[in-house]
Amino acid sequence: MEVLENNTFSSSIADFSAINALCQRLYQNATHSLINEGIKIFCPSIYDGVMCWPPAKPNTIVNFPCPDSFEGATYNSQSNATRRCLANGVWVNRTEYDNCIWTNTTTPDRDETIYLQTIYCVGYSISLISLLVSLFIFFRFRTLHCLRNFIHTHLMGTLVLRVIAWMTLYGNTSSVGNSTVYLYNATTAIQSLASLAMICWMFLEGLHLLKIVYWTYGLHRIRIWHYAVFGWGMLT
């Protein structure tokens, strides 16, 4: 089985479609070379969310040096990532980045990364549990059912959505591939929308408090759906 060597890589995943198109243009000459050799079946150039891989002949393995860093984490650039091109001209679904992970756990950068990730996970977990308990209390006891508390529950709902999106993203960063890139984009979008909704509901909290203090007349006519139209409708 032939092994191909290449040192070019990219670590940006800001726009998967644009980078994938750029990857194909980057290896356009290599693609033409394979066609000129009379090879009709081959794996096309592809961007896997971390690196740009060149076209490869069937039944080959392509090796790339691992990136120095990706998404704030450091990796062993002395090792290689590998991707296999099958005999039918189709890439395997997953790039092998196992060799890129530092095996020396005493590396300062890795220790710091693990420490920060642990703090994030513990903090988000405590926040999620606290929010869910609060939501249960608000919905369980009817004496707490009022417009002000309904606004609170919607605000907490945006926080729950944001925390779940982050934890979903963190739990799927161990594997890198096309599906992970789509998941990254989806969860990042959900986090951004949840943050926007959170700001809207914080504004509505202040607006409702202002109406209670200064504009009590006609307050009974306001319903939660009036606020919901603004709080969630701003996302569209």
From TrEMBL:
Alphabetic keyword roster: Cell membrane, Disulfide bond, G-protein coupled receptor, Glycoprotein, Membrane, Receptor, Signal, Transducer, Transmembrane, Transmembrane helix
Membrane-related topology note: Multi-pass membrane protein
Protein name: Uncharacterized protein
Organism: Schistocephalus solidus
Cellular compartments per GO CC: plasma membrane
Location(s) in or outside the cell: Cell membrane
Domain (G-protein coupled receptors family 2 profile) ranges: 22-100, 116-236
A GO molecular function held by the record: G protein-coupled peptide receptor activity
Any one GO biological process: adenylate cyclase-modulating G protein-coupled receptor signaling pathway
Superkingdom of this protein's organism: Eukaryota
Keyword Cell inner membrane listed: no
Transmembrane parts of this sequence: 114-139, 151-170, 182-204
UniProt similarity note: Belongs to the G-protein coupled receptor 2 family.
SMART domains: HormR
PANTHER family referenced in this protein's UniProt entry, alphabetically: DIURETIC HORMONE 44 RECEPTOR 1-RELATED, PDF RECEPTOR-LIKE PROTEIN-RELATED
Pfam families: 7tm_2, HRM
Entry annotated with the keyword Iron: no
